[in-house]
Amino acid sequence: MTNKLSADTEAALDLVNRTLTEAETCDHAVSVLNYDLETICPEKAMAEQSNVISYLENQSFKLRKNESFVRAAETLFRHRGELSEFDAVLAETLHRNYLKEKNLSPEKRKQFSDVRNQAFLDWLRAKKTSDFSIFAPSLEKIRDLSLEETALREERLPDTYDNLLDDYERGMTAGELDACFGRCLEVLLPMLEKIKGSRKKIRTDFLRRRVTDEEQRRMTDYLCSVIGLDMTRSAWALTEHPFTDGLWYDDARITTHFHPTAFASSMYSVIHEGGHALFEQLQPEENYTHHIRMNKTMGQHESVSRFYENIIGRSEAFIHLIYPETMEGVSERELYEAVNAVTPSLIRTEADEFTYTLHIIIRYEIEKRIIGGTAAIGELPELWNSLYEKYLGIRPENDREGVLQDVHWASGFGYFPAYALGNFYNAMYYRRMKEDLSVENAVRSGNLGKVNSWMAEHVFFSADREDPKTWIRNITGRSFTAEDFLQYLTEKYGALYGL
Ligand SMILES: [Zn+2]
């Protein structure tokens, strides 16, 4: 703590705390209702439940937009030097959001939200019928909205795309991404050719073996416990699309989906979402009491989920640990190879660890061209298909498995790079972690607690208080780079394919 606060600052802090506590009570209820809506809510109850959610969301919104709250938040920002570290971060966060939305009238806000809602519905219809022309008019509006919204900002970066990127990954720029992704292409494309030409044959037939719901249920419980999730503060349920919701400090829930003939898919979604939940569970409790627990960027969050899913979950040590006795006729080595097999594919969410980044680079290149005005919306399906051909050597047959596969563009641009950044960050801290502990031994012997403690101390501790580039430098002592990730892939896949 710092010095005694002036009376003004004290009053402002008190008002901000009281208001945010009230708003977060509404948000908390919204999260519970949403989780229920996604999991067990009866179909006929959904409309009514959605009304309750809208009502509570609006209450929370009104509290945060209240004039006396906004004034108090600005007072805090001016006196941030007097505040504790956690409160100073809160003051900066509130100020940043204030500047972003200052010039947005309620009418504009409503207009933007209507465009996004319509875009989502059009995307659903377009994907169902695999017809991009249904989505195209909405996507044009989303592009215009993105340009207009960034132009209205009180403080903005010179490059429009950087402003969009900054919403998901504070401080990251397209210039830095260009350099990282350029290096990825330089290293990954020739290596992918070698993998395709390799004589190594990986057996994957048993991944399609039928596994009952009951067995997958047991596997889900087992995996949650193996990765060290505290199940007195977590729960899981089934949904169409798996997700994690950190509802509150003692309540980080995940969901999964059972695939009867693709057990590895639900297995890795449990580990991925479990990683997100560990991040939520093992962060400092002060993040909650000081209202900054939502500061984590998408890239920071994905770094953790992908760390558990790929670096840990797809390691030989982890496969040794969980090698199921019931998997008749499959060796431990065969299981390890199968969950790491590299196969260029059309669908990002089903991509292997090696080719995943190429899917992101394709989206990034297209996004930049949409925002920069060098690609018309009507050209996107062809642009998409030709980039898949260029980088992955395969071409979508239709828009459903091409440009329409992801929902993200129905709400805007700038999100996708976070997935790749997550891999760059986690390779950097994994390298640093190995200086402190034998990760392989810890995992092999089922002692994930050691890994989790290291993560809590180094990775989770200050994530909400630092921008990602400062955060990763403080963890590793080095500047942000994609090189560790490329080295990790080169070593792992070079060994697997005997290159
Ligand atoms: Zn995730």
Provide a descriptive summary of the structure in words.
The radius of gyration is 23 Å and the shape is globular. It folds into 3 domains: 1-102; 105-152; 157-499, Orthogonal Bundle (Neurolysin, domain 3). Helix content is 64%, strand content 3%. The N and C termini lie far apart (55 Å). The chain has helices spanning 7-39, 46-65, 67-78, 85-101, 106-129, 132-151, 160-168, 174-197, 213-226, 263-281, 286-289, 298-312, 316-322, 332-338, 356-372, 380-392, 417-436, 439-444, 448-460, 468-476, 483-496, and strands at residues 236-238, 244-248, 251-256. The longest helix is centred in the N-terminal third of the chain and has 33 residues, at 7-39. The chain has 499 residues and is mainly α. Helix 12 crosses helix 17 and helix 17 (417-436) crosses helix 21 (483-496). Strands 1-3-2 form a 3-stranded mixed beta sheet, with helices on both faces. It has 21 helices and 3 strands. It binds zinc ion.
Write the layout of secondary structure elements.
Blueprint: H1 7-39, H2 46-65, H3 67-78, H4 85-101, H5 106-129, H6 132-151, H7 160-168, H8 174-197, H9 213-226, E1 236-238, E2 244-248, E3 251-256, H10 263-281, H11 286-289, H12 298-312, H13 316-322, H14 332-338, H15 356-372, H16 380-392, H17 417-436, H18 439-444, H19 448-460, H20 468-476, H21 483-496
Parallel strand pairs: 1-3
Antiparallel strand pairs: 2-3
Helix pairs in contact: 1-2, 1-3, 3-4, 5-6, 8-21, 9-10, 10-12, 12-17, 15-16, 17-21
The structure holds zinc ion.
